[in-house]
Amino acid sequence: MNYRHAFHAGNYADALKHALFVRLLRALQQKEKGLVVVDTHAGRGSYDLSLASEGDSRARTPEWPDGIGRLWDRTDLPPEVEDYVALVRGFDRSRGNLSDRPRFYPGSPALGRLLARPQDRLELWERHPAECAALRAAFEGAPRVSIHEADGYGAARACLPPREKRALVLIDPPFEAADEWAQVTACLSAGLVRLPSATFAVWYPLTGRARVDALVAFLESARAPAFAAEVIAEPGAARMRGCGVAVVNPPWKFEAQARAVASYLAGVFEPERGASSSVRWIVPE
Ligand SMILES: C[S@@+](CC[C@H](N)C(=O)[O-])C[C@H]1O[C@@H](n2cnc3c(N)ncnc32)[C@H](O)[C@@H]1O
Prior knowledge:
The protein is α/β, with parallel strands linked by helices and 285 residues long. The protein has one domain (5-283): Vaccinia Virus protein VP39 (Rossmann fold, 3-Layer(aba) Sandwich), CATH 3.40.50.150. The protein is built from nine helices and ten strands. The chain has helices at residues 12-28, 68-71, 79-94, 108-115, 129-138, 155-159, 180-194, 212-222, 254-269; strands at residues 36-39, 46-48, 104-106, 121-125, 145-148, 167-171, 199-206, 226-232, 242-248, 276-283. The longest helix has 17 residues, at 12-28. The termini are far apart. 48% of the residues are buried. The site of S-adenosylmethionine has 20 residues, from loops.
């Protein structure tokens, strides 16, 4: 449990994940009926980017300048990305940042809270005690939010099916442990059994060790409609060359939105290094 999201907050991987998360939630909210957002790996809720290089024994280079930093002043944002950037800007300002650089960055719990309607609920799972304590402090007194300091892979069993019978489940692990890919598919499998219509978004890294093939094979066997949106930001990188989000049971025509997000982000992040994007169906609608 060494992972601290603060170092990575607002990087290009967060931008892909959060832009898609925002659009997914908006799409599901087209229906009046309430839903539950289950965040299996919630983190601390939001991040102070001015501290992004601190937190353990060695100094690090903050990653947000190559993520949200590259989007901050763009004037050509497509609506699918503008929505996310506007939410981040609003959050940043509401926390008191008056500078022209981003400082306060909302994680998935804060974005979920910004968008939740009175009929929606958040179920936030975070196993790291310090991260979970920060999450609790940030959400103190917030209505319709449950916080669990526990293994988020248990969230599908514990939270599904919800009384609303509608759910968006974000699975966003650190991918530190060797069995993480197997845990992700086990969690998806449990969730699909309990609420076959739930929408799942799984973030994953593209590294030499990544087991995307195992995730894809599982999704093919699960037979629920699913696609993967990927951004290769640094084709030659020795560690993470890119990342993806697999969306299971996407809202109708959501793939076009994912395509717009992924292709715009690839164009903005690393065009000089040959960045690219793709959206491919694993199980067609
Ligand atoms: C990538 S970060 C989450 C970021 C967050 N979803 C967001 O978008 O703002 C992964 C988080 O998972 C936590 N974590 C690691 N293993 C976990 C587990 N088994 N269950 C729940 N949380 C876990 C880490 O402490 C870390 O805060």
